[in-house]
Amino acid sequence: MNAAVSPRRLAPALAALGCLLLPLLATAPRADAAAGPAGAAAPAVAGTMAVAPYEYLGWGSPQKPTDVMAATGVKWFTLAFILSDGGCNPKWDGSRALTGGSDESAIKSIRGAGGDVVVSVGGWSGNKLGEKCSSASALAGAYQKVIDAYHLKALDIDIEDTEFSNATVRQRVVSALKTVKTNNPGIVTYVTMGTTTNGPDSNGKDLISKGAAAGLANDGWTIMPFDFQGHSGSMGSATVSALEGLKAAVKGAYGYSDDAAYRHIGVSSMNGKTDESDETVTTGDFQTILGYAKQHHVARFTFWAVNRDRQCGSGGDAGSSCSGVAQSPYAFTKIVAQYAG
């Protein structure tokens, strides 16, 4: 994939430069759904964590989160990425400490403006905790450090590349998340992965099946419907096809009803031009995804990334700080913000 376009897959390498089954809810989890793991009272927060677009604060001239909130009404962000520092210890991009730096300051500013965050662990490249931690208990401990640092209400595991393709690591991630759910009652967990146009590939299906077998009550199995390596029709219709495949996989693994299965799946799209020349995700495609999300009350509707949610300058190409399509500022975020769960 093109590093200039998608650090979801590649930019962590640039760091040196810089539910116990939860009740089936009638809506996606609300921002005030749970206290922090240490028993800290959860602040009253407007908006829904089901809408938490990714922002990568170490990449692409990132906008101030509070400016995004004021312009779009979004209250939640998914902040990327937590990686291994070379061992079983979590750091931002594998290099920046969890507390005392710019990342913690950004989280405090979001919360000060009435919002909150999901923290994302993983991405395409860099050292992955799932691989560097030698056991499920050690991995759960690393995840717990992140949760405790920010009294998180939600955690996203973005499992990709070698972490995703290794069956032992897939099991380790699932088992660690089961421990996290047990030790942090009420915490919301998302697992985010790539997909084909027909839904998760064999690794994705195996990951979901391992989750079900372990009794992992994951709140949102989320796919990234882009970089398909070939598709037909619009990206919106390809996304719907992929989501239907995901729903079937989750339903089959967990024995859910159709309604329950939909409420346990999610989508993390990409705005504008993706890493592949035949893929452009338009605002019209986002409207298609929004309609699907509203119809089925999916657990999560997000995208990669706020950093790119603006038009490129004259002669500019899609990359870290723009979408590559004609758009008004935050056009994609404003569509996502219309989803209420």
Task: Provide an overview of this structure.
With 341 residues, the chain is α/β, with parallel strands linked by helices. Helix content is 35%, strand content 16%. Strands 1, 2, 3, 4, 5, 6, 7, 8 and 11 form a nine-stranded mixed β-sheet that branches. Strands 9-10 form a two-stranded antiparallel ribbon. A hairpin with a 6-residue loop joins strand 9 and strand 10. It is globular.
Write the layout of secondary structure elements.
Layout: E1 54-56, H1 65-72, E2 76-84, E3 90-92, H2 102-112, E4 116-123, H3 129-132, H4 136-150, E5 154-159, H5 161-165, H6 167-183, E6 188-194, H7 202-214, E7 220-224, H8 235-254, H9 258-262, E8 265-270, E9 272-273, E10 280-281, H10 283-296, E11 300-304, H11 331-336
Parallel strand pairs: 1-2, 2-4, 4-5, 5-6, 6-7, 7-8, 8-11
Antiparallel strand pairs: 2-3, 9-10
Helix pairs in contact: 4-6, 6-7, 7-8, 8-10
Count up the helices: 11
> Which stretches are poorly predicted, pLDDT < 50 over at least 5 residues?
1-5, 10-46
What is the percentage of strand-forming residues? 15-25%
CA distance, first residue to last residue: 32 Å
Please provide the count of β strands. 11
Helix content: 25-40%
Radius of gyration: 18 Å
Largest sheet, strands/sense/barrel? 9 strands, mixed
Give the overall average pLDDT: 89
In one word, what is the shape?
globular
Q: What is the H/E string?
A: EHEEHEHHEHHEHEHHEEEHEH
- Structural class of the helix and strand makeup? alpha/beta
